[in-house]
Amino acid sequence: MKRDGWIKEANGRWILRFRYDWESWEQNPKVLIDRGRLMSNGIPLLKSRKRMRRNLAIVLWKDLLASGWKRVNPQWE
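RE: above sequence
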């Protein structure tokens, strides 16, 4: 079961990938958030990875969408 969420900054530079951290899911659900962007050659530049509780990740997702970020299709593997 693959459930990733992708959103892109309003100006189009940064992309966030939200994905379940399956190792923590049973006892303390967490989400991994990768921050990166696609370079001109199409290769992703991953700048950071955060791990946060699922409920906080949901709040962050909603806040970003409310501030102008847009849902996008997967940008890298």
